[in-house]
Design a protein that fits this description.
seven-stranded antiparallel β-sheet; globular; alpha+beta; Pdz3 Domain; single chain; 11 helices; about 15% helix; about 475 residues; Thrombin, subunit H
Length: about 475
Amino acid sequence: MFFILRHMAAFGLIACSFILGNAVFAAEKSVPKNQLETQLSFAPLVKKTAPAVVNIYTRKIVRTRARMPLFDDPFFRQFFGNGFGAGQGGREIKRQQNSLGSGVIVANDGVIVTNNHVIEGADKIRVVLHDRREFDAELVANDEKTDLAILRIKTNGKPLPVIALSDSDDLEVGDLVLAIGNPFGVGQTVTSGIVSALSRSGVGLSTLGSFIQTDASINPGNSGGALVGLDGRLVGINTAIFSKSGGSQGIGFAVPSNMVRAVIRGISEAGKLVRPWLGASGQTVNQDIANSLGLETPAGVLINAVHKHGAAKKAGLRTGDVILAVNGHQAFDGNALAHRIATLPVGDQVVLRVWRGNKTLALNLKLEAAPEIPKRNIKALDGEQPLQGAQVANMSPALADELDLGLFFDGVFILAIKRGSPANRLGFQRGDIVRSVNGKNTPNVNKLIKVLRKTAERWRISVERDGKIRDLVINR
């Protein structure tokens, strides 16, 4: 089970030994050969980096409704079950929910990186520096796809200590690292370990995850803290642990510094994150696919769709091609390819190594943001018609990318539905694509509005939901 590190859990100490057969393996021991070897310490590194790691406290107001005591009576629950009285709330109760995490100062004017789950939904964010100074923080931007958030504090021009970002591509399994954060709220803590694995994906932490795995002790409250290399630079942002108890069991994950750099660099002046969009989709090459295509190893992404407005199309990528590498870095699967593209800035020229026709070739690709074609044209539908209360938009690659939808979604997309509205009562849902009304195709918002303005005794509306067309007939 994965634990997001802001949550508390009980923990214990477990002693382990590694025994193979009847032999117990142990490192050869020796006494220090000189005075220098007795003085080896991480202390100078900690003094250099720890001041740039901050504590983050958040406050969120949670609204719930008081239940009548009758609904909690065991006598009634015996007959009606634990769900008795659900939704039968009384007066609204406001409750303050507090949480804690960590963050890293990456610019001396007050820019701080942390995890999105640390500050998600917070009404107030408070940052406490290493020297105990406290500041209210402004949320500059947050990104669910990478579980990163950017904060800013104002220090009246006084520079702050920072940790420089390293190139996480230089990291190797076995490298020593330090984890710095505020576990369990006990105060700033430093632990050491090694890089256990790289490019960990498919662990359900974020859609663009390719994580650094470490055995440096990480616990709840460490989220957003620093994973530091021995050169004193930031190699990752500690994000989550794999644990059955809620405490550290030697498997922690960190967002690589190259992804952190990409998120900081991709934030526009409006506070919106803009990242590159390949404009192609495919499947991970398995052994059967590799055999059929003449590949020596089952690695890469077999392209099965190329968008006509995407950078991939302009670069000459075709369906049936296999992307093997991006700028010399292997793309073992779809997650690795998506992560590799996401760490690069819009406007960069990259080289794709592609397998086509039993040979490799290089394609030069200029990275572009997902295009807004067509313009989304968001509208709230009103009037006496079945879709009253729905908010709709034209689907485009840019909107699909924001909503983390598939590559080839198009048409009029329902973004939201007002509770209690006709659209809500008739069963329309967020995510439905309105394909036609009374036999008239509705390829865009303007066309849909035009058709809905015509009065009708009977409405027949076709929507696409989960890849299936559903027809709804409404009599006036």
